[in-house]
Amino acid sequence: MPPMNPFDLSGKIAIVTGSSKGIGRSMAEHLAAAGAQVVVSSRKPEPCEAVAGAIRAAGGQALAIPCNVGRKEELERLVAETHRQAGPVDVVVCNAAANPYYGPLTDIPDEAYHKTMDTNVLSPIWLCRMVKPDMIARGGGSVILISSVGAIKASPNLGAYAISKAADVQLTRTLAAELGTHRIRVNCILPGLVKTDFSRVLWDNPHAEKMAAAGFPLGRLGEPDDIGPAAVFLAADASRWITGQTLVIDGGSTIVQPSGRE
Fold it and tell me: What pTM does this model have?
């Protein structure tokens, strides 16, 4: 028999960015349910405290530290406050993302392009740099990047976002190669279309949802709690020999051709 529960995160400290709602909230809640002390973080303090309070009310450990990941000084404060209030970091989930533009890539304003790339690609590099000393000192750690199936599919209206998410897949491999000697694992989750506020424009009416769900072998769009447990797996010893990998969670949407195609 295994000597311990490989999914137990007791004694671990986990930062989850963009965790006041949607997929991020689900991951924070599942990590806390597995025993981790979770730092709930997004731009506004009130939603962060509401989620942290709900986790505590359910018997978990959580604290709220607001942060705009696009600002390096706020990320530095996030890590410093985590140290002060909880301790060194074992797990980081880079979930916060930006998509300020919807439309053809050839028409994107430069400012929107740079905001997308800085928030979705550069900020995870900053955060990994900041927690790397903690993880080295503790003999290892887990970094989880949240990408998207947009990384492996073309989109006529989400081009810059898709490019940033494809970059996150390669960032995962690069960081895994760089940090593996320190027993720091880096993996990536690629959610499909999940019903969150972030993706609302793609599903927020019965017709759009029905049309989208028709392309899913499992017959429905995703829910945040379809993603949360995967973060526990990648944070825990259950995945201790997995690094540099991407886990697609999409109801099977990427294994079929679009309707009308052969």
Answer: 0.94
